[in-house]
Amino acid sequence: MYINPLFSGSSGNCTLIGTERGLFMVDAGKSARTVSAALSLAGEKPEDIAAIFITHEHTDHIAGVGVLCRRYGIPVYANAPTWQAMGPLIGEVPPRCVRVFESGRDFFVGGISVLPFRTPHDAAESVGYSFLSGDGRKITVMTDIGHMDSRLLSCAAGSDILMIESNHDEELVSSCRYPYPTKRRILSDLGHLSNASCGRALCELYSAGVRRAILGHLSRDNNFESLALETVRSELLNQDIPESEFALAVAHRDRMTGRFDV
C-alpha cells in the first residue's frame, strides 16, 4: 500500500491511496482538470481510480468530484448527510456511482477494509478514513479536526502511516487579518487542528504504535511547512521521543508531495 497527497490545504485536498488491488482517492477538492494533471505526474490515470471517498462537503474537498464521476464513471462513497449537503454543489451523479455508507461501520472495496469514522468539524457529518489491507497494513487519513479525543486516537492507533491535520499556528491566527468570526471558527472545537495540538496527539499515538506521520491541510495564511514541522517535533521531543523514532513529513498545499510506501 502507499499514500500520495496530491494537494492538501485550504485551497484544495486530494490524496491517493494505492493498493495491490486498486487505486483510491480521498476527496477531489480541485478541478477535474487539475486532479487529472496531478494524477499524470504521479504516473496514474483517472480511469484507474476505483473509488473516491469523501470526507465532507466543503468545496476544498469536492470541487472536482462531480466532473470526475460523470466523465470516468468513478463510484463516490459518502455518508447520507454528506450526500445531501454536497448534492447541489457537485451536480447530478449517475445512480450507479452513488455509494452510501454509515459512519463508524467498516466495509470492503477491492479487498481493502475501509473504516469511515466521524470527525469533529463544522460539516454535515465529516469523517476520516482508515484503510486496512488483508495482511494488516493500515493507512489513516484524518484532517479537518476541531479537536482530538480518545475515540479519534483509537481510530488512528496502529496506523503504519497517518496523515493528520496540522492546520495552523494559534498565535498567527490570533494576529491575522481574518474577521473575528472566522478566527473563532478556526480555533473552535469544530474548526481545525493546530500544530501544537497535532504534536500532542502524535505523542499519544506514539504509545499506540504510530511511527510515521504526514502533516496535512496546512493553512495558506496562518502556517508554513517549517513551522508545522518544528512545532510538532518540539512536542515529540518534550515527551522524549527523538527524531529517529518518529518520521515526519509535510503534505504540500499546491503540488504533489510524493509516494509513501507501507
What's the topology here?
Elements: E1 2-7, E2 14-19, E3 22-26, H1 32-41, E4 49-53, H2 59-62, H3 65-72, E5 76-79, H4 80-90, E6 98-101, E7 107-109, E8 112-118, E9 127-132, E10 138-142, H5 150-156, E11 161-165, H6 170-175, H7 180-187, H8 195-206, E12 212-216, H9 225-238, E13 247-250, E14 260-261
Parallel strand pairs: 3-4, 4-5, 5-6, 10-11, 11-12, 12-13
Antiparallel strand pairs: 1-2, 1-14, 2-3, 7-8, 8-9, 9-10
Helix pairs in contact: 8-9
Describe the structure.
Helices cover 31% and strands 26% of the residues. By secondary structure, it is of the alpha/beta class. The strands form 2 sheets. The protein has a 7-stranded mixed β-sheet. Strands 7-8-9-10-11-12-13 form a 7-stranded mixed β-sheet. The relative contact order is 0.16.
Summarize the structure.
The chain has 262 residues and is an alpha/beta fold. It is 31% helix and 26% strand.
The N- and C-terminal alpha carbons lie at a distance of: 5 Å
Number of strands: 14
Q: Which structural class do the helices and strands define?
A: alpha/beta
Main β-sheet, spatial strand arrangement: 6-5-4-3-2-1-14
Individual helix count:
9
- Radius of gyration equals 17 Å
Question: Which key phrases capture this entry?
Answer:
9 helices; 7-stranded mixed β-sheet; alpha/beta
